[in-house]
Amino acid sequence: TELPGRGPGEDRARLRAARRLGRPFDRQSSFVVGFVATVGVLLAIALGAAVYSVRSTLVLVFLALFIAVGLEPVVGFFTRHRVRRSIAVFIVVLVAAGVVATFVYSAISPMEHEINELTTQVPKWRSEIGSGKGSVGRVARDLHLSYYLSGTGSKSLTNGLASGALGAGKEVLSAVSSFLVVVILTVYFLAALPSIKRFTVRLVPRSRRERFALLLDDVLAGVGGYLLANLFTSLVAGLGTYVWAMAFGLPYSILLALMVALFDLVPVVGSTIAGVVVSLVALSVSLPTAIATGVFYVTYRFIEDYLLVPRVMRQAVNVSPVVTVLAVIMGGALLGIIGALVAIPIAAGIKLVLEQSVFPRLDNS
């Protein structure tokens, strides 16, 4: 098509000039470099803000995946005996739910009795603290705690507890919902764990997939062994607390045993904190009983650290005590109790990767 006022030759020359590529942008110019860097920083900030906003959900997902990996050896036991994975997962979930339901059902009546007894004893203890008589009153008087536990100090404490009752209810509901989310995600992860492993292996170049798959299997086996071993040591701690409480007449023996078992899941510091709480409860019996309880938990701590845990976890993880303490401290600082719980298997996995991949390459360089 000819443009008005122009000849055919001129039009063809203009079309050829329009189709000719111009000079490319200078990608090394300060403007282009600055623009790309600014966009990259903004994208990184947006991604960090998105991850931070869903951090609580990501922690639950990570915890569910950790528990699923820990239960994988049990599911693997059934699959090695020619049981379909879906049926094996159903059996494991059913057994776990049955154990929890049996424990809760057997503990409801004693826990209800102990809670009612605690409610009845609180006014009595307050009266003893105010008069300085009785076992609790004498201990409070000797420790100069009478003002804070009775009178004006007690009123302020009571008002603080009353004002925080609504917040405590919200925390309970949040904990229950988080527990249900973790349970559901654990079941899904446990059923799809082989697919997750295959997907993770495919993210690695083909030439390194076989070695990466072997390392991944070793790391997951260590995590599973650690979780099962930790559950066993926590069960031993809970049973030991129950026997001690029954032998020396400590109140709320089942509640104390359950608390110690849960706290003992946190390595290094869990059983120590639980021992302090049980020793404080033992003050309601007598001061010598509280001292004996403290000595019992110190002794148990040494037995657990130097006899029980090394023997149980020798086949699971092989991490030095220094690395264990540092991992627990850093995990607790990052993710709280959940971080302290998963810190040791993560440290064991990093140690395995260093020994199998990084150190040999450095030795041969």
Structural write-up:
The chain has helices spanning about 10-20, 30-55, 55-80, 85-130, 135-140, 145-150, 150-165, 165-200, 210-250, 255-265, 270-280, 285-310, 320-365. With about 375 residues, the protein is an all-alpha fold.
Question: Mean of the pLDDT scores?
Answer: 76
Q: Give the low-pLDDT segments.
A: 151-157
Counting DSSP H or I runs of 4 or more residues, the number of helices is 13
Task: Kindly report how far apart the N and C termini lie.
Answer: 69 Å
| SSE series | HHHHHHHHHHHHH
Helix fraction, binned, reads over 70%
User: Quick one: biggest sheet?
Assistant: none
| Structure class | mainly alpha
What is the radius of gyration computed over CA atoms, rounded to a whole number of angstroms? 31 Å
* Number of separate strands: 0
Please specify the SSE layout and strand pairing.
Blueprint: H1 8-19, H2 30-53, H3 55-80, H4 85-131, H5 134-142, H6 146-149, H7 151-163, H8 165-202, H9 209-248, H10 253-263, H11 270-282, H12 287-312, H13 321-364
Give a concise summary.
By secondary structure, the chain is an all-alpha fold. The chain has helices spanning 8-19, 30-53, 55-80, 85-131, 134-142, 146-149, 151-163, 165-202, 209-248, 253-263, 270-282, 287-312, 321-364.
